[in-house]
Amino acid sequence: MHWMVQASRAVTYEVAIVEDVLCPEDPTLARAGAEPGSPARRYVVVDSAVAELHGSRIERYFAHQQVRIGVCVLDVSEEVKSVETALRILRALERFGIDRRREPILAIGGGVLCDIVGLVASLYRRSTPYVRVPTTLIGLVDAGVGVKTGVNFDGHKNRLGTYHPAACSLLDRSFLATLDRRHISNGLAEILKLALIKDRYLFDLLECHGARLRDEKLQAATTGGEDVARQVLARAVDGMLEELEPNLWEHQLERRVDYGHSFSPAIEMRALPELLHGEAVSIDMALTTMIGRSRGLVDGRDADRVLSVMRQLGLPVWHPVCEEGLLRAALAETVRHRGGAQRLPLPVGIGGACFVNDLSERELVAACAELRSLAGIG
Amino acid sequence: MHWMVQASRAVTYEVAIVEDVLCPEDPTLARAGAEPGSPARRYVVVDSAVAELHGSRIERYFAHQQVRIGVCVLDVSEEVKSVETALRILRALERFGIDRRREPILAIGGGVLCDIVGLVASLYRRSTPYVRVPTTLIGLVDAGVGVKTGVNFDGHKNRLGTYHPAACSLLDRSFLATLDRRHISNGLAEILKLALIKDRYLFDLLECHGARLRDEKLQAATTGGEDVARQVLARAVDGMLEELEPNLWEHQLERRVDYGHSFSPAIEMRALPELLHGEAVSIDMALTTMIGRSRGLVDGRDADRVLSVMRQLGLPVWHPVCEEGLLRAALAETVRHRGGAQRLPLPVGIGGACFVNDLSERELVAACAELRSLAGIG
């Protein structure tokens, strides 16, 4: 005998740009991800830096909204993005005790924290709802809006994880005001990625206003700055969701948003803790821009513009770990991760992308050498 | 600004009753869960008892099929159904190295092993395909055919897990020949559950042939026995899938297949390692049969028949851990797990079920006392 079980799982989640999410009178956060009548209890996982800056506002907020909270403060970095950290949260969550469906876990912090809490939420009772409040730029435009969760494992980036969208992501730009400039650059790298593969107008915005966006931390320091910041954030989120929505579970392994993510996982993990995620992505994009140029996909002038915008955004285009052996290993691992083919996104001019499966080692090594000399390393 | 992301994930998986799955000439297992042209490499997780009995057959099988295998032999029990065990497999899997989509992990073993490997497969690279070959009766009719994966955590049964169906489950009854009778009874408990909630004819089969099925271990010892064994297995799998398919991700929390699983998680974990899963389920069903009888849902004669079939199948109807405190705590935990309501499946006669939300502690305690005295404990 023989059965084919067939089912279809509908997934809906909300992403909203909000203002002043911790304003005590605004019930948005307190109600997010829960049906009316759900218990007013929440388990909140907060980044330690955020807790230091906004901890008392968070407490005041939930007190005003009459929500009883349990809090887990987490000192987060790529190095503690581990199963052990996830288990620590899970144990604390178990002690607090939550209902399976009606008491969403809240994640308030950067991309790494959102990724870990997403994994926790997907594992606890075989999935509980959760709500994300990203507080970094990379969280706002990348980790906070997709469905991927994960932790590093055995030296590999995000090797363990799930697909589990937050019920709701609330994007509040005001958290960026207290971020250091390096972390603004970190997020700008993912915005630049979207610009390069699909949005030439977004690239133009970054080229004209990148340095100012970084210096003003996407806040309303100047009238023009406010308008540009709004536009850049909205276009980045919109572009990202447009790419993700038809391919949430990555059935299609040719993903334009994988641009900058072919060599960067290995670069980032090897350089740990020296490079932030976006910095490794920037180096990957610089490298593939060189490959694109040598293939005639990007002309010299555009390639120069791309590298120049990276520098303007405070992003690196090179790191000493980028030697041949590492890049070869990175490519082999990427092939394994993309189901046996390179499926390598390459830039086409500025704002376009294609996929190739025939990158040779010689090409890779040549691009790497060229980038090294461009970066002034010789 | 505001976005609603909407997507639908189609899931298809296969469950097949097969014969002699390790016959070297039969390519079914070697090809299961993989597209033609996929690499001929598999990582196989095998229960240590199965490895001892069938290890050389497994090796011969894959050698004949020209599939290179990596093997992880696991000494499995409810007590090592833990995150640590899952991580141990994941580390070994990482060393073997598998392609993300084309080299399904194989699980050959009982329900506990299938649950752990399912979790491993769902976490590795955010989900890899896997294939189940259950070797116990509970694996054949329960853990091996659904989509739930999991491990115990912090003293709670299956507290961490995911929904991740195997690409394919191959059900081969011949493995049962080497199982001890207690583990046959363990699986018969889940078959009895299906009989009680939805299949009176299956109950009749168990009532007439239960002892023989158990003694013959569902093998073709006698002509009649073979026919009954086939029928019982097919009806159990069919009934189970009929319940699961429309509610794979448990959006509906009133699940008839939760019958026997309201109090048993706490009973099983408290009595560990004394009770097997199916034994705890049997005690739960005996208890809820008493509740059903006191509510007039099951008449005295049917209640007696149910308890008598349990005894005939070698299943317990009582265990000393069933004291008031534990049952109260079990009910509270079940309410939390079922989204804030009891949603307690109760039997209606034999072959029917209903859900109640108003079980009182007094009722629970009375049913427990009655069962204790019926069990001859006084």
Summary tags:
homodimer, 378 residues, alpha/beta, six-stranded parallel beta sheet, two-stranded antiparallel ribbon, 13 helices, 10 strands, globular
Please explain how this structure is put together.
Chain A is of the alpha/beta class. Helices cover 47% and strands 17% of the residues of chain A. Chain A has helices at 28-31, 48-64, 83-96, 111-123, 137-143, 181-198, 200-216, 223-244, 264-271, 277-294, 300-312, 324-337, 361-374; strands at residues 2-18, 41-47, 68-74, 105-109, 130-134, 151-153, 156-160, 168-172, 344-348, 352-356. In chain A, the strands form 3 sheets. A 6-stranded parallel β-sheet of chain A has the order 1-8-5-4-2-3, with helices on both faces. In chain A, strand 2, helix 2 (48-64) and strand 3 form a beta-alpha-beta unit. The longest helix of chain A is centred in the middle third of the chain and has 22 residues, at 223-244. The model of chain A has no long low-confidence stretch (mean pLDDT 95). Chains A and B meet through strand 1, helix 3, strand 7 and helix 8 of A and strand 1, helix 3, strand 7 and helix 8 of B.
